[in-house]
Amino acid sequence: MFLQKALLPFLFVALSFSTSPSFGTETVIVNKTFHGREIKIRVGGLIRIDLEELGSAGYVWEIQDLDKDHFDVVDVRTEGPPPSGDVTGKPIVKTWLIRAKKAGKAELKLLYHRPWESEKEAIERFFIRVRIL
Amino acid sequence: MSRERSSRVRGLTLVVAFCFQWLLFPGFVFSDSDELEEIRNAIKAKGARWHADETSLSKLSEKEKKMRLGLRDSEDLSMEYLSGEETAPIPLVTLAPPTLDWRNVNGISYVSPVKNQGSCGSCWAFATTAGLESQYMIAMSGMPVDLSEQILVSCPNGGGTCSGGSSATASNFLRDVGLPLESCFRYTATNNDCSNACANWQENTYKISGWHRASSTTVTVDDIKNALYAYGPVVTTMYVYNDFFSYRSGVYSYVTGSYAGAHAVLTVGYDDEKQAFIVKNSWGAGWGEAGYFMIAYSEVGGTSWFGYSVLVYDGYGANPDPPPPPPPPACSYTLSSAGKNFKASGGSGSVSIYTQSECSWTASTDSSWILITSNGSGTGNGTVSYNVEPNTGAARSAVLTIGGQTYTVTQNGAPRSIKKK
Fold first, then answer.
1. Is a pLDDT exceeding 90 seen at residue B5?
2. Is B263 assigned a catalytic role?
3. CB contact (8 A) between residue A10 and residue B17
4. Rounded to 5 degrees, what are φ and ψ at B408?
5. Is the CB of residue B123 less than 8 Å from the CB of residue B283?
6. Strand partners, B43
7. Chain B residues whose beta carbon lies within 8 Å of the beta carbon of residue A82
8. Which residues of B219-232 are buried (b: 16+ CB within 10 A; e: fewer)?
9. Is B123 tagged catalytic?
10. CB contact under 8 A, B78 and A85
11. pLDDT, tens digit, 9 for 90 and up, residues A24-56
């Protein structure tokens, strides 16, 4: 009985975070193949962006000129260190969790470069158009 | 009772929240903020001894959370580690000096210039190649050499690709096959293809004589110092965190930021007073202290786990011998003039010789009345001086041969005396 009471609210919240927009909070998962495309999301919904980066070469993805009227970066994370061994230089996946704040049209832009170098030296760019409903 | 129930609810809340986090981000945990100010604050708060520079990344207002999950199981241990291919461990050195920097040992550097791996996961190739270059320089009294990292990235059994590689496998390759000069296969920061290397490159390679691990168990600070002192620079692995990108100078130690990747570097020295190792990176000379960084001894086994693998090279492999040095350029000699005329009374003269700095020459004459007074031989440009004795007879001439060139000295005859009848 106690377990049911305690877990039910969390199960509801967990389900609401599924990718289906029919639930309260939707999450749209975006990766590199979405470059240049438009996505639709409801106000309050989450955009998860997964991009591979080569931190061991000094290269990272970073958000450029975040539109703070429309977006909030909820979190940024990377996968954990690998097991010990002699293998180095593998790329890792960095993930952003971004909340859509306000209805309208906006863009999310990221660039791939070495943080100590200028943005002009970026070797790759990524953007998506976002229609917030 | 109520408190107990509340505690249980809180516990369950945490458990479910944790599970929920993994629903969205399987394999991830949340990380801490990484803004420059926070890095600087963290440096201050933790008493770290390094300076963080502003980067475009650090200007962002986004929140990055620190990732501290460490799944260190044994599945990724290299076959080389288990196969025992490496040579015997180093003997303990108890008289290691308090500082050592292979960039300057009695005024000689045994470390090749900092290179730039670009956007290719080839740190393992750069670290191992730099290790071989140092072994060659140690064997050859500091003679520089620039070897091809691209061979390791592109050729079979080289150790890996631009998506990562094994330092141990690359070290086996350096021992068994070796590397040609950089000019044979220039670095492209791509996987490229081995067929693009120069023809027959395997016939003229540089090798290590062997390699071993700094320790058969967990590596300690003393293990690394001993290896540096006994053998030279060592190939070292570490974890890179986001604060490391902001490193500009000082002694790095982890203060904040999320995990960014496993990295291979070349440790080239240490400083007991600063309690730090001196390390050569492969991100170009524009990062850190002209491409180098110092890292605290405390990071050995610390968050960045500096030295979780340390490979020691036994020496330069003399079989086959290193390629012979290029032949000196052919020497050419030019004199400042073709010759000079003297009166019968004699005198002194000089002539300059021009040639390459490494070209030697001698000056000689078959004449008894010309005396070379200075610089009868030399190397590079020079000036030959000579004296001409008085002439009591008829006009005469002689030749000076300098660097194979002919210089003609002529002298008037003695004036005739006119007798009156």
1. no
2. yes
3. yes
4. -100, 125
5. no
6. none
7. 71, 76, 262
8. bbbbbbbbbbbebb
9. yes
10. yes
11. 578 999 999 999 999 999 999 999 999 999 999
By CB atoms closer than 10 A (0-12, 13-18, 19+), residue B137 is buried
Best mutation site among A78, A93, A109, A124 for testing chain B: the one with the most B CBs within 10 Å? A78
The answer to whether the CB atoms of B57 and A60 lie below 8 A apart is yes
| d(CA A61, nearest CA chain B) in Å | 9
| C-beta separation of A60 from B240 below 8 A | no
**Per the CB < 8 Å rule, is B20 touching A27?**
no
Active site residue B281: yes
A33 CB contacts (<8 Å, ≥6 apart)? none
**Pairwise CA distance, residues A91 & B113, whole Å:** 26
CB of A93 closer than 8 Å to CB of A51: yes
**Residues of chain A found within 8 Å of residue B5, distances taken between Cβ atoms:** 2
Distance CA A60, CA B171 (A): 28
Walk me through the domains of chain B, giving residue ranges and CATH numbers: 37-59+78-317 (3.90.70.10), 334-411 (2.60.40.10)
Contacts of B23 (CB under 8 A, 6+ apart): A14, A17
Distance from A133 to chain B by nearest Cα, in Å?
22
Q: Could you tell me the pLDDT band of residue B54, with boundaries at 50, 70 and 90?
A: low
Q: Do B12 and A6 touch (CB under 8 A)?
A: yes
Class for domain A26-132, per CATH? mainly beta
Which residues of chain A lie closer than 8 angstroms to B33, CB-CB?
none
pLDDT in tens, B229-263: 999 999 999 999 999 999 999 999 999 999 999 99
Per the structure block, which two tokens stand in for A92? Answer: 């890792």
Q: Give the start-to-end residue ranges of the domains of chain A.
A: 26-132
Strands B99-101 and B211-213, sheet pairing:
unpaired
